[in-house]
Each structure stands twice: as C-alpha cells, then as structure tokens.
Amino acid sequence: MIIRRVPQDFRVVERLAPGLLRDTGSHAIYEVEKTSLTTPEASQRLASLLGIKANALDYAGLKDKHAVTVQAISVSHLADAPSPLEAPGLRARLIGFLDRHVVAADIDRNEFEITVRDATREQFRSMDRRGEALLLEDGRLGFVNYFGEQRMGSNRHGAGFVARRLVEGDFEGALRLAIGTPARKDTGARRELTRALAMHWGEWKRVVRSVPGCPQRAAVEALEAGASWRDAYAALPHFDQQMHVEAFQSHLWNAVAAALVRATPPEDLIPSSDVAHDGMIFPTARHWTPERRQLHLPMPCASTRLEGAWGRAAAEALATEGLSIEQLRIPGLRRPSFSEATRPLLAAAANATATAAEPDDLGRAGRLKRTLRFDLPRGAYATVLLRALGQ
C-alpha cells in the first residue's frame, strides 16, 4: 500500500479554534492552500505577493510538502490586506484578523483526506480489522501519539541524529550531518551545498565560491574565516538548530512510549506495518483505561526526573543510545536546548470513515484504492495512524 502517488492523494485542512478571529486587528490572517510546497516556501511566496519581507509572516504549524494542505498564515501590520491572492502552487484568501500572530494553540484540529493506493483486497481487510481493534467506545480510533517520521528530518539518511553528535560535543560531526550529508529531499541551493560539502569537506573557500547563497552557507563562511566547529554550528539558522534537537528529542520520546506500551499483554498489541524501521507498537482499545488516557509523557531533557514506570522506560531508551538523562544538553551553547514539555500518550482520530475499495486508476493492474477521512488533534500525525492501520 502506498500514499502520495500524487499530491492530491494527501489533503489536510487546518481548522482554527471557533470564535478565534476578529473583524479588525494588527495581524491579517490568511487561509493558504498550497500544493507541493513546504510551509516556509509558501510563506515566502505569500510575502512576495504582498510585497513585504517574510519575517512579517508566521504560521501555527508545519504542513507536508508532497500534499495539498490548507493552513493559516498571519501577516503583521499590513497597510492593506488584498484578497484573494495566487501564485504557482498557492492560493490565499483573507479570513480575519488578530492582535498577534497565530500560534500552535490556535489550532483546533486537522482534517485529513488520504487516498491509499496499490493495495490488495486482503490488505484492506487487514486494515479494517486493525481499525476495529483500535476503536474506542466513543467511536474514535485510539493510537499511541508517536511523532511521525517527518519530525525526524535531521536523521540524515540513517546516518544518525545531528543532536546525538551535539550532546557529545562533536560539533564537526554535527555539522557534517547537518550540511555535508546529502538527502533525497534537499532542493535548490541547499542541495548544491550538501553535495559540494560531501565532495570537498575542508575546502571551505572552494565550496563558498561554488554554491549559491543560502542561510546554511553561513556556517561554511565562518569556517573559511577560521571559526571553531562550535561557532560554525552556531552560525546555522536558529530554526535548523532547534529542529536538530527536537528531532532527537522526539525520537527518544517515541522510544520511551514504545517501551511503556510493550508492558501490555502481547495479544493486545498491534505492530506498526514497518515496525523493524520505526519501532512503533500499538495497543488495542481495551488497553486505554481512563488513567492511561490521561497520561502525558515528558519530553526527555537534562532536568527531567526519572520516576516510576516512565522513568524506567526512559532510562532503557537512553541506555540504548549510550546516554544518561543528564547528558541531554549541548556543551558550550545556550541554544538550541532540550526543552521541557509534555505530550499526551493517547491520540484519537474522530469522524473516521473509509470508502469502499475500487480499482486503482494510477496503480498496477488488479490493485485497489480507497479514501480515508478523519480528524486529528494538533500535534498528532496522520502517518502514524496509517502505520497502525497497516499502511
């Protein structure tokens, strides 16, 4: 089974909290529909349409690139707020105002419509059985709230997490993973930079002269000027640095959650369809007692106290990485940092439906497709639910 044969196979609409928007305010809120664009790319394109700098724009969440997605983008202090606006891969319309930028807490839910293709009839029967096993008594599909693989972007082609090198003080290794290890999803100037550095690591002047400007090139320019590995890493965009840390922290959270779930009787466990790669294990609906539904697990950081069942699972996950909880800090840098936060262990998909199987017009002969629709709370990943369903 596959998803995203074409961007239209994966649709997501971000819904803001009811009653949030106002008729006036210092920040114009646009509803932006984008196709095959990252959220930062869409934000830059919208800024160009408005004739302003991209730093005047903000968004509540990052949405998939290989998809059709709708989300809110806020624009501060516009003299005029034209609507509608269009550019390649983007359509935007003004939907209201706020006296601040939109933030993650403003998202009420995300509505998904996903076409699953290239499946056999037995695969869809298995998907239905998995769905029945996850079905809570209120009609929602309950699953472990793992972070999806999109969150693990700094695990460069399986070469390791950037932040794993950072906590060891290996800033050269971190830089090499961050900007000197090519990845399939790299595009444009970033793609040219990673490939040039992979071939000519240490030849900083040559690389600077041969690649176009991009924010990540600042680290190479710092090295050319004689900066230390640590200072060169610090020259990377702060967004990149924080994503490096959050990716590794999310990986650790997933490992802790999986370790906790493994205590469930085996007959009540459903492995991910790619468990050998992602390590995700899902309990059936009867696992979710009222107490378990209320569990929020800490994001591992140096100040976290390892207590109870969660603490034992966290120590186990960290030991697998050869780390202790106290090591989750970056020596010599105040930022990025492993932040304190919690995440609910349970995610639940509401309003879940599936169409009947039909011939796949884009797939192999005899293969089938169907469309899944469901709503998820902010922060939950549709791709994780699909893994639980067997995709």
Provide a descriptive summary of the structure in words.
Helix 6 crosses helix 7 and helix 9 crosses helix 12. By secondary structure, this protein is α+β, with helices and mostly antiparallel strands. It contains 13 helices and 15 strands. The chain is globular. The protein folds into 2 domains: 102 residues, Pseudouridine synthase (2-Layer Sandwich), CATH 3.30.2350.20; 193 residues, no CATH class. The model has no long low-confidence stretch (mean pLDDT 94). Strands 1, 2, 3, 4, 5, 6, 7, 8, 13, 14 and 15 form an 11-stranded mixed beta sheet that branches. The chain starts with 9 loop residues before the first strand and ends with a helix. The longest helix has 24 residues. 32% of the residues lie in helices and 23% in strands.
Tally of discrete structural domains? 2
Average pLDDT? 94
CA radius of gyration: 22 Å
What is the helical fraction, as a range of percent? 25-40%
Unreliably modeled segments: none
Overall shape: globular
Put simply, the count of helices is 13
The number of distinct β-strands equals 15
Distance between the termini: 6 Å
Q: Largest sheet, if any?
A: 11 strands, mixed
Could you tell me the strand content as a percent range?
Answer: 15-25%
How is the secondary structure organized here?
Layout: E1 10-16, E2 27-35, H1 39-50, E3 57-59, E4 68-76, E5 85-87, E6 90-98, E7 107-119, H2 121-134, E8 141-144, H3 162-167, H4 171-179, H5 188-199, H6 204-210, H7 217-224, H8 229-234, H9 238-261, E9 269-271, H10 275-278, E10 281-283, H11 290-293, E11 296-298, H12 308-320, E12 342-344, E13 346-354, E14 358-359, E15 368-376, H13 382-388
Parallel strand pairs: 1-4
Antiparallel strand pairs: 1-7, 2-4, 2-6, 3-4, 5-6, 7-15, 8-13, 9-10, 11-12, 13-15, 14-15
Helix pairs in contact: 6-7, 9-12
